[in-house]
């Protein structure tokens, strides 16, 4: 975020180029609505974030925030499934294992498509970190 911004003002961030950029932005926006998590995020250093220490703070966010994160994750899983289906339709190949295809998406836990857990936040952080290393 830019320094000197006014509280509540929306700061436009450049597109990361990641295929899950919108999901990443939405997760961050929702997490920042929780005062406790926002404070932890602002005081955390990059190593705390990359190590997964910050992900454990997810257990302390409000129920409303968790519910919204669960909803975002379900939407992202549905989007990925739609992409997989479109890819399969384009090649007309049968017998493809959808779960195997979902495994290539490392920014969320595909084995639990319904709820956003600390592991999801950790995987999202690690996926973004790996992209920029």
TrEMBL record:
Cell compartment(s), UniProt: Cytoplasm; Golgi apparatus; Membrane; Secreted
Keywords carried by this UniProt record: Cytoplasm, Golgi apparatus, Membrane, Phosphoprotein, Repeat, Secreted, Signal
Principal subcellular localization: cytoplasm
GO molecular function, one term: calcium ion binding
GO cellular component: endoplasmic reticulum-Golgi intermediate compartment; extracellular exosome; Golgi apparatus; membrane
Oxidoreductase as UniProt keyword: no
Domain NUCB1-like N-terminal: from-to ranges: 6-128
Name of the molecule in the record: NUCB2 protein
Organism the protein comes from: Drymodes brunneopygia
Gene that this polypeptide is encoded by: Nucb2
